[in-house]
Write a structure and sequence with these properties.
single chain, 4 helices, about 100 residues, about 40% helix, 5-stranded mixed beta sheet, Glutaredoxin, alpha/beta, globular
Length: about 100
């Protein structure tokens, strides 16, 4: 199960070799479509990638810090530093291919 991040624990939560943060909101339809895809990815890559969720409602400053202006957005962190961002809904296969490339880097 993905780790729920807050403003207070965000830096500690994204620390590590490879972390994927899902910036989402409960009212967001596309976020609801992305959730099962991320759960399946976590089942497959959970030993190699840390999966984190961050609810942007009431915490927009944290999202803005990482240039997240729409949800869902996935931000890839390496060693606590934001490296890349993808926004929108993607199928499992496309995100799995992306993550495979990132693991090999």
């Amino acid at each position: 199960m993905a780790i729920d991040a807050t403003v207070d624990n965000f830096d500690a939560t994204v620390d590590g070799p490879l972390t994927l943060v899902d910036f989402w909101a409960p009212w967001c339809g596309p976020c609801k479509m992305t959730e099962p895809v991320l759960q399946k990815l976590e089942e497959h890559y959970g030993q190699q990638i840390k999966f984190v969720r961050f609810n942007v409602d009431g915490q927009q400053d944290q999202a803005t810090k990482y240039k997240v202006y729409s949800v869902p957005s996935l931000v890839l962190f390496r060693n606590g530093q934001a490296k890349e961002k993808v926004t929108g809904v993607y199928p499992y296969e496309k995100l799995a291919h992306y993550l495979e490339r990132k693991i090999k880097e």
